[in-house]
Amino acid sequence: MSRPRARRLEVTRAPFGTTPVGDPAELFTLSHAGGLAVRVTNYGGIVVSILAPDRDGRPANVVLGHDSLDGYLRDPRYLGAIIGRFANRIANAQFALDGTTHRLTANHGPHHLHGGRTGFDKIMWRATPFRTNATVGIVLTHSSPDGDEGYPGTLDARVTYTVTDRQALVVDYVATTDRATPVNLTQHSYFNLAGDGDILGHLLRIDADAITPVDETLIPTGAVAPVAGTPFDFRTPTAIGARLDGRYDHNFVLNRTGPSLVHAARLVDPVSGRTLDVHTTEPGLQLYTGARTGLGLETQHYPDSPNQPAFPSTILRPGAEYRSQTVFAFGVTG
Fold first, then answer.
1. d(CA 51, CA 199)
2. Nearest partner of 232 among 205, 199, 272, 260, judged by Cα
3. Would you kindly state where each structural domain of the chain is located, as residue ranges?
């Protein structure tokens, strides 16, 4: 009798712990035989792990994470989470919109960071897994009520994680609102293509000719400055640790001529041979290396956009739809 063939694409679910208010979290595994295996929990929409093969076919987890929900409840670093309603910072935790000043939760000194004290990284998303002939994934939905962390309007958000048979994790964001409100969603995984150790020897290329400079509190000055001749020039592959002692928390202005999906960055670990290519519809990419053992490549609109009229607008109005896509494609070098 022949053995049943292993399914190339599978999705499974299991308990992952309980939140302090008693909500049970689940862990979903999205796997492709011989390719990626991505684990996601509905708490915070967190990507718990991504198993990717090296040049010899040996898998390793290439994102920082915890084995239990308790680890995430104690960790303030937003590991692997969905960030919203607004990724990055809003100066002085306020913005003016249509003649009204809206005051947000100040959770980073005087400023508002990553959606406030209880952003999208700390809520239970409704999860629906799916499988097609070429993909597996999970659809996460959440309704953020009017006044949540100070934001106007009820925001209905949907985030879809899809694992393809081409070793890619695709993240699609959709949102609608009943009142004008800023929206800027992102995914906050910390990548380490070696699987452990630091990331200072990783080679990074970013398709950006400019950054948005910041003040001492990391709020944009409003300028757009060229990277040429500065430590922010990653237009050719450069080791993370080659400059600034490897410490970055800056928004790069991606080179684009339209709204379509463009290549944003390429990360390579020379030792394991693993590679990561990031494509996005977003105008910016936040490079964050605060962990030293992992780096964030957060596709986004620019920080403090609601207070910066020269930046691309993040305002979503009733009747319109916020849509964004980012593709994390894994591979190997020879």
1. 17
2. 205
3. 9-332
pLDDT in tens, 211-257: 999 999 999 999 999 999 999 999 999 999 999 999 999 999 999 98
- Cα–Cα distance between 32 and 7 in angstroms, integer? 8
Q: What are phi and psi of 29, to 5 degrees?
A: -110, 120
Structure tokens at 273: 């041979």
Residue 320 has pLDDT above 50, yes or no: yes
User: In the chain, what is the straight-line distance between the N-terminal and C-terminal CA atoms, in Å?
Assistant: 39
The reply to whether omega before 85 is within 30° of 0 (cis) is yes
Q: Which of the 8 DSSP states describes residue 184?
A: B
Residue 25 main-chain phi, psi, to 5 deg: -95, 155
Rounded to whole angstroms, the Cα distance separating 16 from 69 reads 6
Catalytic residue among 66, 202, 298, 301, which? 298
Mark whether 202 is an active-site residue: no
Q: What is the 3-state secondary structure (H, E, C) of 46-100?
A: CEEEEEEECCCCCEEECECCCCCHHHHHHCCCCCCCEECCECCEEHHHEEEECCE
Q: Is the pTM of this model over 0.90?
A: yes
pLDDT digits (tens, 9 = 90+) for 145-163: 999 999 999 999 999 999 9
* Residues 56, 211: Cα–Cα separation, whole Å: 37
Please say if 298 is a catalytic residue: yes
Catalytic residue of the set 188, 202, 279, 301: 188
Alpha carbon of 126 to those of 24, 33, 276: distances in Å? Answer: 12, 27, 29
Q: How confident is the model at residue 7 (pLDDT cuts 50, 70, 90)?
A: low
Domain 9-332 classification at class level: mainly beta
Partners of 142 in beta bridges:
157
Provide the β-strand partners of residue 138: 129, 161
> pLDDT tens-digit profile of 59-78?
999 999 999 999 999 999 99
